[in-house]
Amino acid sequence: MASSSISNSWVYDVFMSFRGEDTRKHFTGHLYTALHRAGVRTFRDSEEVGKGEDISASLMGAIQGSRISLVVFSENYADSIWCLDELLHIMACRETLGQMVFPIFYHVEPSVVRRQTSTFAAAFQKHEATGPDIGTERISWWRTNLQKAANLSGWHLKTDQ
């Protein structure tokens, strides 16, 4: 855990990582509103963030400047190169800065994220097919960090069936 001298430098209380197409107008939108109303300084990207392939310096700074990261894993999270790169930086900040990371499994089983099965397997098949453009080492880091994040204690939100 970060020392109190480091914790005084946090710009945000919470950084939210999520696949916008899956959750922005529903779960993460409501969660952001609730946190904001409670006075929790929360970073949530805008509709414009994520249009490119590389994480911008400002987004990396927001991750580094957050005490807590909430990673909302949804069915199509692994389709997004942006989300996977964001997760790499979040997990690095956990190790180097003592940032707290809490996964939220939104309509996806934690074991799917951990083992990269189902939609996560399909996403990785696509990423691996473009391997030279992405890089096999980068894909390996994504897989390792998805597993690490899925092993953290968090919340599992399921649909009622």
From TrEMBL:
TIR domain residues are 10-161
Alphabetical UniProt keywords: Hydrolase, NAD
At the top level, the lineage of the source is Eukaryota
Q: Which Pfam families would you find in this protein's record? A: TIR
**Which EC number applies?**
3.2.2.6
Q: Where is the signal peptide?
A: none
The UniProt entry's GO biological process terms, in alphabetical order, are: signal transduction
One example GO MF annotation = NAD+ nucleosidase activity, cyclic ADP-ribose generating
Reactions accelerated catalytically:
NAD(+) + H2O = ADP-D-ribose + nicotinamide + H(+)
Q: What is this protein called?
A: ADP-ribosyl cyclase/cyclic ADP-ribose hydrolase
Question: Which organism encodes this protein?
Answer: Rubus argutus (Southern blackberry)
